[in-house]
Amino acid sequence: MKRRGKNSPAIPASLAPLGHVKDITAGEVQAIQETLNVNSIRELVAAISNGLLETVQGITAVQIKNIKRAFKLYKTDDTRIPLWDARVAGQELLRIFAQFPEVEKVALTGSLRRCKDTVGDIDILIQATEADRRKLLYKISRMPQTESIVATGPHHFCVVLRNQLQADIRLATRKHYGASLLYYTGSVPYNQYLEKLAGDKGLRFGPLGLTDSQSGEYVAGEQETDIFRHLGIGYLDPELREGYEEKTYAAFYQIPSLVTFNQLKGDMQIHTDWSDGTESIAAIARYLSHTFPHYQYIVITDHVSGKRPNHVLPPEDLFRQAEEIDRINALMGFDYIKKGLETDILENGAPELANDILLQADWVVASIHTDFARDNTDRLIRACEHPAVHCIGHPSGRMIGMRPPYPADWNAVFEAAARTGTALEINSRPNRLDLNDALIHQAISRGVTLVINSDARTLSHFDFMKLGVSMARRGACSKRDILNTWSWNDVEAFKAAKQRLAQQ
Ligand code: DGT
Ligand code: CA
Ligand code: CA
Ligand code: ZN
Questions:
Q1: Residue 345 to residue 370: CA distance in whole angstroms
Q2: Which residues surround ligand 3, an ion (CB under 5 A)?
Q3: Which of 133, 157, 227, 492 has the fewest CB atoms within 10 Å, counting from its CB?
Q4: What is the C-alpha separation between 483 and 435, in angstroms, rounded?
Q5: Domains of the chain by residue range
Q6: How many angstroms separate the CA atoms of 278 and 281, rounded?
Q7: Could you identify the atom of ligand 1 that is nearest to the CA of residue 121?
Q8: pLDDT tens digits, 108-124
Q9: Domain 79-252: homologous superfamily in CATH
């Protein structure tokens, strides 16, 4: 990889990672060092961020690109990828790596393991022996998914995949695997919190383990839990390892346990070929009852509107859809399929559909589909206050990479939802994830009950539920915060409670 001439200068240890970048010679490292006057990677990164690399004579555009990849400086808000895409690509790599005999263990790390709604790159940790490093590098460079390897360090391969995603692959031996897993899962502020806890105990924390800060002696590192134990704290789920105050971390340990996908008993927003979906109700029922046998009910919520011309179910056809649901439920032998609907929230905050229609439905989702730029606090509160509305769909209206949440006084909205007994949705579609993690946490702190929905249009979309669950976990939700982990009887009780509140 390197062209190292007889007279080439030695690369200073403080800049060694620069020497690991593809096709960067020792002479070029020296040129960068001297031109930019940098003597550490930290200084180098600062200089690159300030656009100074382009001023170094003889460094090509391709080299600059590789250096930026290697130091993760290509990442901008525009290049972040949706969690769903990264998860699919990351899991494919995990499957491949798990088949290499050299790989003892492999896991996703970084923001991908923390399930952030968008991720900068795919981080992977492999447990392998030092002796197998070269074999692994060879196999990874030969896999069809690899476009190029832009940097290789002693414990790091930086790979650009053919789909243009970057994979940062770190290596650890058995002795350091847990420490590396913890460290490379991050986040950076969480690591700083761990470093501080370690420091208070006379220890140092890093990817090679917990060490004694005096003697440098290894204390622990095989498993994450070993390190938590030595630091005197319990295991913290990766989804919660963001930058919080110490008292917030402490509060997380009071949560019974974070909600899981297997705890869900149903999906409460599904579109069929009666409106904008592609599948029949029968096909959906057959698919879900086999694929997710832990679901006890599903709620069909086609978009019902008398105003919109296309891709909606006209209100006058609802009774025919109800007949179809009755027929399928009869065949299944129980009321698996519930009769819901999604209605637009109008400009004034009222649902579009008339009360007599809403009152026939088992479950009413009301959503804002217009006027995303204005402050929507008043509309959201009025929708919550409507006695026939059970849930607000995708409450903040954001579309990742397209439009931010519309402005709203979220505390006022959450207060209204809690006061009226209205559920708010965690919409699991990869470009929505709405409510987002921070709003989810704020909502449950104010006593709001949430519902995690796929909002599926086709069979493959039902898997998105796992993303919604990840968001709920990042928002520190346990089972009791999520309505669709409850039985349908309990959902009925939730609706009845709203009715009682409305009559007071
Ligand atoms: P991303 O890729 O922007 O979505 O976010 P992360 O969290 O995956 O960040 P990344 O890929 O740069 O690094 C992975 C983890 O490695 C990060 O979460 C924590 C750890 N790490 C990276 N750089 C540093 C650092 O300078 N200090 C500390 N303490 N940890 C670091
Ligand atoms: Ca990352
Ligand atoms: Ca990374
Ligand atoms: Zn909608």
A1: 8
A2: 110, 121, 123, 168
A3: 492
A4: 15
A5: 13-74, 79-252, 261-503
A6: 10
A7: 2
A8: 999 999 999 999 999 99
A9: Beta Polymerase, domain 2 (3.30.460.10)
Lining residues, ligand 1, CB within 6 Å: 72, 75, 110-111, 116, 119-121, 123, 183-184, 186-188, 191-192
Number of other residues whose CB lies within 10 A of the CB of residue 37? 10
For 404, other C-beta atoms within 10 Å of its C-beta total 11
Label residue 66 by pLDDT band (50, 70, 90): confident
Q: What is the pLDDT of residues 175-227, one digit of tens each?
A: 999 999 999 999 999 999 999 999 999 999 999 999 999 999 999 999 999 99
What tens digit of pLDDT does each residue of 279-305 get? 999 999 999 999 999 999 999 999 999
pLDDT digit string, tens, across residues 368-411 = 999 999 999 999 999 999 999 999 999 999 999 889 999 999 99
Residues 150 and 159 sit within 8 Å (Cβ to Cβ): yes
Of 45, 71, 108, 111, best ligand 1 pocket probe by most atoms within 8 Å of the beta carbon: 111
Q: Which residues have CB under 8 Å from 52's CB, separation 6+? A: 36
Angle at 120 (CA atoms; ends 114, 194), nearest 5 degrees: 45
Given the candidates 3.30.1540, 1.20.1730, 1.10.150, 2.60.40, the CATH classification of the domain at 13-74 is 1.10.150
Q: What percent of the chain has pLDDT over 70?
A: 98
- Counting ligand 1 atoms within 8 A of each CB, the residue from 123, 208, 240 with the most, and so the one to mutate, is 123
Residues 467, 84 contacting (CB under 8 angstroms): yes
Please determine, for residue 69, whether its predicted confidence score (pLDDT) is greater than 90: no
Q: CB-based contacts of 159: which residues, under 8 Å, 6+ apart? A: 140, 146, 147, 148, 149, 150, 166, 167, 168, 169
Decide if domain 261-503 falls under CATH 3.20.20.140: yes
In sequence order, what DSSP letters do the residues of 151-208 get, joined into one string? EEETTEEEEEETTS-EEEEEEE-GGGHHHHHHHHH--HHHHHHHHHHHHHTTEEEETT
